[in-house]
Amino acid sequence: MRDKITLTNSFHNTSVNVITAPTEHEGLGYLLTKRQVKRIDKKLCGIEDCGCGVVRMPGVYYFVTQDGTATVEGNIFQENQNN
User: Fold this and answer.
1) 3-to-9, 33, 51, 60 alpha-carbon distances in Å
2) Fewer Cβ close by (within 10 Å): the C or N end of the chain?
3) How many DSSP H helices and E strands does the chain contain?
4) d(C-alpha 54, C-alpha 8), whole Å
5) What pLDDT score does 83 carry?
6) Radius of gyration of the chain from Cα atoms?
7) DSSP, res 75
8) What are the pLDDT tens digits along the chain (83 aa)?
């Protein structure tokens, strides 16, 4: 099953919706592709060398790996998608 999640940046007052799959371990977050990471970065900040942290949400942790993929964990708004 895929979920629609909303990520925000409280510094720039921006948000982005992403359709993604949960991790293999239920309740432990979502996996994001390289393409999704680039889109999230551009939509939430887009300013080179900005120190805002891109995803700025209380209780949400956004981890970008060395290969450019990411996981996002924590208190995330989600809607189930039937696709």
Assistant:
1) 20, 14, 29, 16
2) C
3) 1, 6
4) 8
5) 47
6) 12
7) S
8) 788 889 999 999 999 999 988 777 666 788 899 999 999 999 999 898 998 888 888 888 888 999 999 988 887 765 555 54
